[in-house]
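REQUEST ID: PR-0412
SUBMITTED BY: lab tech R.K.
PRIORITY: routine
TASK: structure prediction, single protein chain
INPUT:
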Amino acid sequence: MAETKKLHVALFPWLAFGHIIPFLELGKRIARKGHQISFISTPRNIKRLPKISPDVLPSITLVKLPLPHVEHLPENAESTMDVPHHLVPYLKMESDSIPTGGSG
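STATUS: complete
OUTPUT:
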């Protein structure tokens, strides 16, 4: 029988817990299939995640990616729950300014 190839999946959800939690659940399901997950979010959002069960914890790496500060956002604004609705576009600007390391 051919060996099943294991994947390493990176998940980087939008900075709203309505996206973060479903992405985490997806990551846990993928991890239970034997794949490795890198779950990427801001340090404060990572701290606010629900506990990950021990059966999948070894397959999930939580990657803390600090955001560069953007004018008009309060200090420590790392998700939509941290800002009033009218400041959410600045949060998008903040997340769009994350260096990707690409050459393009």
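NOTES: The chain is about 30% helix and 15% strand.
REVIEWED BY: pending
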